[in-house]
Amino acid sequence: MKKILSALAVILILCGAFVLLAPQLVTIEAVRRSLTREVAGWSGRALTYEGTPTVAFNPYPTVTFAKVRISSDKDPQPLVEMESLSAELGFLPLIIGRVRPSVLELDKPVFRFGVNAKGQPNWTLPRALRGDSELGRLVIRSGTLHYVGQDRKELLLTGVDARLDWPDPAATASIKGSATWQSEAFDFNGSIGAPLDLVSGRETALRFAIASTPLRASFTGTVANLIQLQGEGELTVTTPSIRRLAGIFDMPMGEGSTLGSASIESHASLASNTLTFADAKISVDGNESEGALSIDFTGHRPSVQGTLAFESLDLSAYAEALASLVAEARATPDLPLPLAGLDSNDLDLRISAAQVLLGSARLGRTAASATIRDERLDLSVGEAQLYGGRLSASLSASLRDEAASGSLQGRIDGLPVRAALSDLFGIGQIDGIGSGTVSLSAHGTNWNGLIGSLSGSGKATIADGTFDGVNIGALSQAITSDGTMSGNLLGGSTKFRQADGTFTIDADRIAAPSILVTGSGYTITLSGEAPLQSPTLSARGELKIDRASGTTSTPVHVPFIIGGNWQHPTLVPDFSGLSRRSQQDAVPAVGPIRSFARSLLP
């Protein structure tokens, strides 16, 4: 018992002696020199302060410097300035006369880092830190970080609260904290296996995670070469909204139903300013894909290259968004077209899918590519299976001077017409196997200019088909020798061997100057036009029926008119045409049915 009391007495005497002697041991100049060594080791620059530092014991001896600055030798503004810097000193080093800070606390620091147009930073990275540093903790309260890149874009973090723990220069350093960026609060944490190795250019382990409402990301791997950062490891990134995330990076995309949730999980590597995702699993708006991506940051803007494979790719929402953009452009035809967002980076992307969904339309195996380079957009569908047929198309557009200037070429073969037209356009009156080509071009800074300059041409063929609305066989029997008709003339369907037609597009109208339909015992010639921005139809044609009479064939000519719209076309005989032809051919007098119809359709 006496020994224990004696030991306690000795401890109390030593503590009392330290309290009495500590103010003599802690000199402001010694602390300043020690801090200067630490700061020089990290930044290569000296530390300055204003006023008289204060010494306190709470419970460790702490020296506080006010209005502290760390200058930059490449910028008139200080590299770091803060309201105060507190240095906590360890007991044991202080007893033996070593004034070394073990904890630094920075109050309201402002960090200013930047790179000039030549790529030169305004700071000097330490080539090697001293391995005998006793600094075990760095605390930042209410800090601000400014970073200006070579492209003069600024990164601003506010409300930075962080704690860096590094108990031993040879041990792992860990960091944890929070900050605000673009009005979005986020938390972060991470660790570096051997910071001294990283500074000296050697490889070391790195773990980092960030969590916020618009973005969650984590990385586990290795990094090397702090000056020209390199690394590789496993990376996971998720976001509930690509549009919201793009706004944080100063690339506003506006509101929309597309480009929502997304994620990427991949082995990632960074080398020579190129970030590569190998064997990546990528999801965008519920569309799952696998492939590889790389982003090159070497140039003045990012360059994205990649190959992605989808089992199923649903583009229905994107088709609706495109339709909405077209509707908005039509509603404000004199406003400039929104093209700026298409040219924010270079792109070379190749996509394949076992199935593509576009609303009610279904495409089978599809291969496509998209490139953006030198202010030019090129889209290509190498081959797509469309209802059993084959579709290929290419779109090329210039994005210069905020003007849309582009051309479109397309080809289709072996298309089941009824299924395709019914799903795509709601037209279900024609059947057969179709093929055709189309070529279009246009240019303009707004919708009026684009539509006003639209021009193109194409051709189409339908083989072994039928059309609904009239039965030519029954019609042939209903027409008498005097030109009158009786019975239900419309309804039913008619088979044909082949239908060929050409069409042209000029401004906002499509015209078909020549359509020829051939069938068993009849031919149809047809011409018409329709406005592109209206569903109405206007066409006129003639049906020629070859009726055998004994050893001779007596053709019957039936002019007709097509009206209505694409979804509900109307077909009526052109009785005025019949009347003119009957007079020219000396057909007997007009029958009662034709007289009544002519009174309705003068």
The whole-angstrom Rg is 40 Å
Q: How many H/I helical runs?
A: 11
Q: Structural class, from helix and strand content?
A: alpha+beta
Q: Tell me the span between the first and last alpha carbons.
A: 130 Å
How much strand? over 45%
Range of helix content: 10-25%
Indicate the mean pLDDT: 79
Tell the overall outline.
Answer: elongated
Low confidence ranges: 14-22, 577-602
The overall strand count is 31
Largest sheet: 31 strands, mixed
The quaternary state of the protein chains shown equals: single chain
Domain AsmA: 3-124, 335-506
Pfam families: AsmA
InterPro entries: AsmA, AsmA-related
Protein name: AsmA family protein
What does this structure look like?
The protein has 602 residues and is α+β, with helices and mostly antiparallel strands. It is built from eleven helices and 31 strands. The protein has a 31-stranded mixed sheet that branches. Strand 14 and strand 15 (287-296) form a beta hairpin. The radius of gyration is 40 Å and the shape is elongated. The chain starts with a helix and ends with a helix. The relative contact order is 0.04. Mean pLDDT is 79; it is low at 14-22 and 577-602. Residues 3-124, 335-506 form the AsmA domain. Pfam families: AsmA (PF05170). InterPro entries: AsmA, AsmA-related. This is AsmA family protein.
